[in-house]
Design a protein that fits this description.
mainly alpha
């Protein structure tokens, strides 16, 4: 029983490096799995052997969706900024929308 108590400080001291090794290999394994993930949607559009006009139409649809998403995110940012200064203005649509061509 005394030998267990004698090893306790060593185990406590070794716990951090052992966890670092465990996390290293866990993250390394996770990194490998993301490399085999499907290609981005823009690359997928061109890889589908579509005609040029079909590719343009698909990319314009994606662009429209991204612009819509950007405006929604801008509204959320404006709502959060407004809530930091005036909690009564959150969610009532007072936040200004960002034009489609602008970036955040």
């Amino acid at each position: 029983m005394d030998w267990i108590l004698g090893l306790l400080p060593l185990l406590v001291f070794a716990a951090c490096p052992l966890m670092m090794v465990f996390c290293f290999f866990g993250m390394r394994k996770m990194d490998c799995s993301t490399e085999s993930a499907p290609a981005t949607s823009a690359a997928t559009v061109s890889a589908q052997n579509l005609s040029a006009t079909e590719q343009i139409a698909a990319l314009q649809t994606q662009l429209s969706q991204l612009q819509f998403d950007q405006m929604a995110i801008a509204r959320q940012i404006d709502d959060l900024a407004a809530s930091a200064t005036d909690p009564a203005s959150v969610g009532n649509g007072t936040a200004a929308a960002v034009p489609a061509g602008s970036s955040l």
